[in-house]
Amino acid sequence: MAGHSPDFEKLVTRYTNTQNQVTNREFVALDPYQQELRDILLAERIQYSFRSGLALDDDECDFAFDLEEATRALACLSGVDNATRAKREIGRMWSDLESNPYLELFPRDLDAITMYNSVRFWRAFTQAYYAIGRELTSRQQRIVVNSVYMACSLMMQEARADGKSFSEFDWDVESWILENNSRVEQFADCVVTHHEEENSGGFPMSFFKHLQKVDTFAREVRALFRGLAN
Q: How does pLDDT run across 67-117, given as a tens digit for each residue?
């Protein structure tokens, strides 16, 4: 479309990273279950780094990710509310290892493969979602970028509704996203259109950090999206 911004990557960085002051990360290193998750994945040649200062090594492992990426992905998997909290300030997700939201994301029975597939889904979905955003106007781009946490959470629900299991090691997550790219496009269109009906002239960044507004908005967008399939 005409009017698209040539600086989309800068927009992504601004609205999905710099707004989140990362704090409390060092507390997570005190959780012995994090080491257990790391060891399980390492046996499958998957590197999970939960301690700050440890570099990821894609050459030695087949896949590598860190605590921040795992937290974003698991927040989306656990539901729209936690996805919104992670967007607002990811460091707060680690503020208390003995209570929620930390235990909702990292329960003592968390399957390591579920965490791995959640991260794969987050990466593949955001890549597809942002690719759609690049073709839109500047304001629509801001809506797409700021809605990505909510959108990923809802699309994870769609994958589960399709019978996909995040605990299945052999699930080809990337292929599922590719095969459902038209659904991702439809979903992005629903998000942009409904946002402009509900928040015309408002700031997308503020809107998608508001728990109550996003909760209502997500339910409405999901209904609109599923209505397209009927």
A: 999 999 999 999 999 999 999 999 999 999 999 999 999 999 999 999 999
Is 34 in contact with 50 (CB distance < 8 Å)?
Answer: yes
This prediction has a pTM of: 0.90
User: Token pair of 160, please?
Assistant: 């589960």
3-state secondary structure 10-61: HHHHHHHHHCCCCCCHHHHCCCHHHHHHHHHHHCCCEEEECCCCCCCCCCCC
Backbone phi, then psi, for 209, in 5-degree steps?
A: -105, 0
178-212: b (≥16 Cβ within 10 Å) or e? eebeebbeebbbbbbebbeeebeeeebeebbbeee
**Helix, strand, or coil (residue 116):** helix
User: pLDDT by residue (tens digit) across 106-125?
Assistant: 999 999 999 999 999 999 99
Q: Can you state the angle between helices 112-133 and 138-146, rounded to 10 degrees?
A: 170
Give the angle 161-167-170 at the CA atoms, nearest 5°: 100
| Counts of helices then strands in the chain (DSSP H, E) | 13, 2
Structure-token pair, residue 163: 């019978």
Q: How far apart are CA 76 and CA 86, in angstroms?
A: 8
The two three-digit tokens of residue 79, written as one number: 């539901």
